[in-house]
Design brief:
The protein is an alpha/beta fold. It has helices at about 15-20, 35-45, 60-70, 85, 90-95, 115-120, 150-160, 175-180, 185, 215-225, 235-245, 250-265, 290-300, 325-340; strands at about 1-5, 50-55, 75-80, 100-105, 130-135, 165-170, 195, 210, 270-275, 280-285, 305, 305-310, 315. It binds pyridoxal-5'-phosphate (PLP). One of its GO terms (molecular function) is L-allo-threonine aldolase activity.
Length: about 350
């Protein structure tokens, strides 16, 4: 099987397994785990923030950020295709008491300053004020779009002018930065908090990072405890996370493989795929007369795994465990899958 369902399917390397076994550990709820502390320090530095907290998942990181930045009854501004809105089980509403104002931020998923001003609401007797703007980079549902620093900065500045804090869902922040040749610290310079995943393209088995100011992280550690995310000898999972931070540059290989995959699939009669910014390839199979369900099933039967991404759209995600030869093979197999329809 060539598994292109996600970059989360990667298996930890032998080095990661050895690092987990040998990690120095302590009770992290007491702040005693040296490996977690090292990971948090390095991770904070990598995105130019004062401090960071290690969390079990990207979802928990985003949800903690929303809770820390807002008061119940406020509104969160998000793109209608945002992960926090579509795929986090309504957490903003349930865990932070937020009303979500989701609007179409366009094909790259980043709002313009005008859109931020248009959708922001000032609190009044009748109106729930806006308490948070949430941005996403890369933008998953928009097809792994790498949003420029200029666009992130412009949206963040517009929010800040209205007194609204900004969280960046950077689950794949490093993919964006590698694709754009941008420094991650510069990318996160104008936002108040940023989450990124160690467990996606960077290849760690578990874990994400939530970074921000010292005061923000102090509150985030408390909310993490409340959400059940306080961990004990977490150095066991932080050690592979430290090695994952060394996997940033190689994301360029995933992007190149994604480009090869997209061009190959686009050349298959009945399929179309735009050249991706990063490691996410979205394929349209409507011209082949195949729904995404049918296409995904046909691909699976020939040995390629992808995921449905809309009625006629399928997502393939390149990753650390997939080679150039694998993606070239996947193109041939997907061609067979379309032929056999
Ligand atoms: C994967 C993802 C998350 C959530 O991360 P989990 O570790 O799966 O909870 C959040 N935002 C985006 C954009 C993602 O792609």
């Amino acid at each position: 099987m060539i598994d292109l369902r996600s970059d989360t399917v990667t298996r930890p390397s032998d080095e990661m397994r050895a690092a987990a076994r040998d990690a120095d550990v302590g009770d992290d709820v007491y702040g005693d785990d040296p490996t977690v502390n090292e990971l948090e320090a390095r991770a904070a530095e990598s995105v130019g923030m004062d401090d960071a907290v290690f969390v079990p998942s990207g979802t928990m990181g985003n949800q903690i950020a929303a809770r820390v930045h807002t008061d119940p009854g406020q509104e969160a501004l998000v793109d209608v295709e945002a992960h926090v809105y579509k795929w986090e089980v309504g957490g903003f509403a349930q865990l932070s008491g937020l009303q979500v104002r989701a609007f179409d931020a366009g094909s790259r998923g980043v709002p313009t300053p005008e859109q931020v001003r248009e959708h922001a609401r000032e609190e009044s007797l009748h109106v729930a004020g806006t308490g948070l703007l949430c941005l996403e980079n890369t933008h998953n549902a928009r097809g792994g779009v790498a949003v420029s620093k200029a666009d992130i900065d412009a949206a963040a500045d517009a929010a800040h002018e209205l007194g609204i804090p900004v969280h960046l869902d950077g689950a794949r922040l490093f993919n964006a930065c590698v694709a754009l040749d941008e420094d991650p610290a510069a990318m996160a310079e104008r936002v108040d908090s940023v989450m990124f995943c160690l467990s996606k393209g960077l290849g760690a088995p578990v874990g994400s990072i939530l970074a921000g100011s010292e005061a923000f992280v102090e509150n985030a550690v408390r909310v993490r405890k409340q959400f059940g995310g306080g961990m004990r000898q977490a150095g066991i999972i932080a050690a592979p996370g430290l090695l994952a931070l060394d996997n940033v540059e190689r994301l360029a290989d995933d992007h190149e493989n994604a480009r090869v995959l997209a061009e190959g699939l686009d050349a298959v009669d009945g399929l179309s795929a735009a050249t991706p910014d990063t490691n996410i390839v979205v394929v349209d199979s409507e011209a082949a007369g195949m729904t995404a369900d049918a296409f995904v099933e046909a691909c699976e039967s020939v040995g390629v795994l992808g995921g449905t991404f809309g009625e006629y759209h399928t997502r393939f995600t390149t990753n650390l465990n997939v080679s150039r030869a694998d993606v070239e093979h996947a193109v041939e197999l997907a061609g067979d899958a379309v032929e056999s329809r």
